[in-house]
Amino acid sequence: MDTINYTPGPMPQYTPGRDLIGYGEKPINVEWPNGARIAVSFILNYEEGGEHNILNGDDRSEAYIWEKGGATTEVLNGRHLMSESEFEYGSRAGAWRLIRLFKEFGWPMTLYAVGTAFQKNPAFAKACVRDGHEIGNHGLRWLQWAHLSDEEQIEMIKQAILMLEEASGEAPVGAYIGRANIRTPELVKIAHEQLGKPLLWESDVYNDDIPFWRDCEHEKDLPNKEKKGLLMIPYNYVNNDYKFVASNPGPGFPGAFVYEDYLKNEFDQLYREGGRMMNIPLHTRIIGKPGRTNALRNFMKYISEKEGVWVCNRRDIAKHFQEKFPYIPGKLAVKKTD
């Protein structure tokens, strides 16, 4: 029988610990603005131009999250016509189709924007800010960060912040790195502190339908009154449009009608519960295809006809939550008492 070596207790490189309890049986009432029953956050992942490509000094073409995705499509030490073209569809056509769609409804979204990708399409970057969309940090490059050191991650996060600000005219106040490791959320906060840039939220978690505070390891020796904590706004994969192109066999959306139907069902359940948030993750090269955009539009029209729906960006969610539930060390959320 094989022996498994196990060292009890968290090791520094594996902090923070886990929380399997959360808010428990009776979650807090978030009290969304104007009595809204639900906060809906549309998130557009903008990665085109930041993915693996030999022209960027990488050793391979990107094989992840495109129409013919999967390891079998990877080209080592060379370029891949199909993969590159699919990503270009997102930046050339899909991005602008989505800009027009959200302008039709007058709704904001949050961009998870890769620094080098925005740098290569500054017209789109500036159009997003012009139309009232929020710019979030999706990293310097859209690459796997799992084995990077803390120092490497901090430097890449800082470069991405400055690059996004230069390209769009707006510095990000939140981040979702995505292809990250267990240390990344805290390192995002450290990078913002080193640059003197405010950080309102971080979304590299998938464990709730309600925001929550977490303590920061690098603040553990500070007096409680000096600790700032880190507000986590959970993200999800369940509504993610990447399921249209998930590797076969996989849990993908077989068609736009299934995607639309699932979004409506999730919305209905969260709306019924009240006080929850709904994430709708999007990609320009995926949902930006015409038939899928139309399904998204059908869903948007569906929720536009409901009362008590707050369509917002993550910056506004963070500001609301911080006002109602200011950080208290060791607590997920405690309502402010006037």
Percent of sequence in beta strands: 5-15%
Report mean pLDDT, rounded to a whole number: 91
Number of helical stretches of at least 4 residues:
8
- Terminal CA distance reads 61 Å
Topology, please?
Layout: E1 38-46, H1 81-105, E2 110-113, H2 115-119, H3 122-130, E3 134-137, H4 150-168, E4 174-175, H5 184-195, E5 201-202, E6 212-214, E7 230-232, H6 256-273, E8 276-283, H7 290-304, E9 309-311, H8 314-324
Parallel strand pairs: 1-2, 1-8, 1-9, 2-3, 4-5
Antiparallel strand pairs: 6-7
Can you walk through the features of this model?
This protein is of the alpha/beta class and 338 residues long. It has 8 helices and 9 strands. Strands 1, 2, 3, 8 and 9 form a 5-stranded parallel β-sheet that branches. A two-stranded parallel ribbon has the order 4-5. Helix 5 links the parallel strand 4 and strand 5. The radius of gyration is 20 Å and the shape is globular. The model has no long low-confidence stretch (mean pLDDT 91). One of its GO terms (molecular function) is hydrolase activity, acting on carbon-nitrogen (but not peptide) bonds. This is NodB homology domain-containing protein. It holds the Pfam family Polysacc_deac_1.
Please describe the structure with a list of short key phrases separated by commas or semicolons:
9 strands; 34% helix; two-stranded parallel ribbon; TIM Barrel; 8 helices; alpha/beta; five-stranded parallel sheet; hydrolase activity, acting on carbon-nitrogen (but not peptide) bonds; 338 residues
